[in-house]
Design a protein that fits this description.
47% of the residues lie in helices and 8% in strands. By secondary structure, it is mainly α. A hairpin with a 2-residue loop joins strand 2 and strand 3. Helix 9 packs antiparallel against helix 10, helix 10 packs antiparallel against helix 11 and helix 16 runs antiparallel to helix 17. The longest helix has 27 residues.
C-alpha cells in the first residue's frame, strides 16, 4: 500500500526530462520523455491518460465524500450482511483519525487519484514546449492539462485544505515528499492554471465531445471564485458562459442526464465524465453502488432492465434521506425524476420501501456494466452560480431572473422570500446527488450546524433513516464533524511533513 503513491508521483521518473546536453545519452530501449514525447500523437495519448482517473473518482469516490457525507444521502444498512464498512464512517461523520491523519481507504484513494492526474499533467506541461507541432493543437492539449491539474488541486483543497503542491514531475523518492502548501497557495495555483487554460481551449462547438472546453474552464474558475467569495470575478466568467451561445437548459429535466448509450455531452452539459458500456474497460457501475440492499434479481430488473439481473447483497450507499425528499416543493417536476422508490422483499425493516437515486438509473444491456456519464458541471449550475454572484453584490433583480429560469424548467413559480436562501435551496434540489451538497454547506458556513442537527434527527428516529427495527446508530456516530478530511495515514508514513 505505501509504495503506491511513490509509484504515482514517480510516474515522471519513467518519463523523466533529460537535460539538453550533448553528453546526455538516453538508451533507446528505455521509456523516457526523450524517447516517448516526440510528436503530437504522444501528447494526445498522454492527455487522454490524464482523464482516466476521473472515471475512478466519480464512479467510486466523489459521491461518498461529497454527497453521502452530507444530509442528502445516507448509508443503507443490511443487517443480514453484518459488516461495518468504511463508507459507514463517512456517512456517520465518524471517520477515525489521530494526529491529523486517517486510515479511511476512500479518503486515501481519492487523494491518490487526484495526484495521479497531477503527475500525468505535470509530465505533459513540462515537456510539450520542447516539441514542435501545430500551435492550435498544442494549445488545446496544454489547456486540457492545465484544467485537469487545476481540477485535481481544487478537489484536494476542498477535501483537505493544505496539501503538497507538485508542479513538476517527481523523478526520485526525495522529491515525492513536499511540505504542505497553504490553502491560499493551492488556490493561487488553481487560478493561475485556469487563467492560462481558458484562452488555449476551444469552445464546446469546436472541441471533441467529452474533452475540456473554454466554457468548462470558465465554469471551474468561477466555482473557485464563488468559494473565495470573489463575486465580481465570478460574475464576469459566468456571464461569458451564458452569452457564449454554447449552452442552454433542456426543456424537460428528465432529458438532462445521459442514458447508458446516448444523450451524452448534450446542450446543457458543460463538463461530464465519460463512461462507455461494454467490454472495453471504460464502463461504470455507480448506479449499482447506490441501490439499497438486499435486492432480489426480479426487483433489480425493474430498475436496470438488464437481460441478466443478479441479486444484490452487502450494504447500500447513497440512499436519499427523508430530508432531501422533503426539500422538494409541491409540484417540483424534478422530484420524480431524481428519486424513485422500490420495495425490497428481503429487507429486515417492517417498512420495506426504500428510495433510490433515479436520475442515473438508466436501462442498459448487462448487469453491473453501464455507460451513463457523470455530470460534473451543467448549465443550470452556471445560472445558479450567476444568480448567487449577482445577489451577493446587491443585484437582486437580475439574480432572480437567472434563478427563476431554473425554477421555471422545474414547473415552479418565481422565488419568494430571502433570495440567498432561495438560491441555496434551489442548488440543493436542482443538483441533488451530483456531489455538490457537502461543498455548499462548507463554503456557506452551514456545515457544522446543519450536520449536527441532521445527526440528532437520525439518532432520535433511526427507523426513518432506514435502520431496521431494534437497530440504532453506533455510539460514536456524528462524533467527528469537521470541515476537512484528515490526510491519509499511508501518505503520512511516507512524508515527514504530515
Amino acid at each position: 500500500m505505501k509504495k503506491t503513491v511513490i509509484f504515482t508521483l514517480l510516474v515522471g521518473s519513467m518519463l523523466s526530462s533529460c537535460k539538453d546536453d550533448f553528453l546526455t545519452i538516453v538508451p533507446k530501449t528505455q521509456l523516457s520523455s526523450a524517447t516517448f514525447f516526440t510528436k503530437e500523437a504522444d501528447f494526445q495519448q498522454a492527455v487522454n491518460a490524464a482523464y482516466v482517473p476521473l472515471r475512478t473518482i466519480f464512479n467510486d469516490r466523489a459521491w461518498l465524500l461529497g454527497e453521502m457525507h452530507s444530509d442528502n444521502t445516507y448509508y443503507g444498512r443490511n443487517p443480514l450482511f453484518g459488516a461495518t464498512e468504511q463508507q459507514e464512517d463517512i456517512a456517520d461523520f465518524a471517520i477515525p483519525e489521530a494526529n491529523g491523519v486517517t486510515s479511511n481507504t476512500h479518503v486515501l484513494n481519492q487523494y491518490r487519484q487526484d495526484y495521479l492526474i497531477i503527475a500525468r499533467t505535470n509530465q505533459i506541461l513540462s515537456t510539450i514546449d520542447n516539441i514542435e507541432f501545430a500551435a492550435e493543437s498544442k494549445n488545446n492539449i496544454k489547456g486540457q492539462a492545465l484544467f485537469l491539474r487545476a481540477f485535481a488541486y481544487f478537489e484536494l483543497a476542498r477535501y483537505f485544505g493544505k496539501v503538497p503542491l507538485h508542479l513538476t514531475p517527481v523523478t526520485n523518492r526525495e522529491e515525492a515528499a513536499l511540505p504542505l502548501a497553504s490553502e491560499e497557495e493551492v488556490y493561487a495555483q488553481i487560478v493561475k492554471d485556469l487563467t492560462e487554460a481558458i484562452p488555449m481551449l476551444p469552445p464546446k462547438s469546436k472541441q471533441e465531445a467529452g474533452r475540456v472546453t473554454s466554457g468548462a474552464a470558465r465554469t471551474l474558475l468561477a466555482n473557485v471564485y464563488v468559494v473565495q467569495k470573489n463575486w465580481p470575478e465570478a460574475e464576469t466568467l459566468l456571464r461569458e458562459v451564458v452569452t457564449s451561445g454554447e449552452y442552454a437548459l433542456i426543456p424537460n429535466y428528465a432529458d438532462v442526464f445521459s442514458t447508458s448509450t446516448s444523450n451524452k455531452n448534450n446542450k446543457e452539459s458543460v463538463f461530464e465524465v465519460q463512461f462507455l458500456e461494454g467490454s472495453a474497460g471504460l464502463n461504470g457501475n455507480f448506479i449499482y453502488q447506490f441501490l439499497p440492499r438486499p435486492m432480489a434479481a426480479v426487483e433489480l430488473v425493474t430498475i436496470t432492465g438488464t437481460s441478466n439481473p443478479q441479486p444484490l447483497d452487502a450494504e447500500g450507499n447513497n440512499i436519499p434521506t427523508p430530508d432531501i425528499i422533503a426539500a422538494y416543493e409541491p409540484g417540483d417536476l424534478r422530484k420524480d425524476v431524481s428519486v424513485g422508490f422500490i420495495t425490497l422483499s428481503g429487507s429486515a425493516r417492517s417498512n420495506k420501501v426504500y428510495p433510490y437515486i433515479k436520475k442515473y438509473a438508466k436501462t442498459h444491456a448487462l448487469h453491473n456494466n453501464t455507460g451513463t456519464n457523470w455530470p460534473v458541471y451543467r448549465y443550470s449550475e452556471v445560472l445558479l452560480f450567476l444568480a448567487e454572484a449577482l445577489n451577493e453584490q446587491g443585484k437582486t433583480g437580475e439574480a432572480a431572473t437567472y434563478l427563476n429560469q431554473v425554477r421555471s424548467r422545474a414547473g415552479l413559480g418565481e422565488a419568494t422570500g430571502d433570495l440567498r436562501e432561495a438560491i441555496y435551496q434551489e442548488r440543493r434540489v436542482e443538483l441533488a446527488f451530483e456531489n455538490k451538497r457537502w461543498f455548499d454547506l462548507v463554503r456557506t458556513g452551514r456545515a457544522i450546524e446543519t450536520i449536527t442537527a441532521y445527526g440528532n434527527r437520525i439518532k432520535a428516529d433511526p427507523q426513518a433513516y432506514y435502520y431496521p427495527e431494534g437497530s440504532t446508530p453506533r455510539s460514536h456516530a456524528f462524533s467527528n464533524i469537521k470541515l476537512y478530511y484528515a490526510l491519509p495515514a499511508d501518505e503520512a508514513a511516507l512524508s515527514p511533513y504530515f
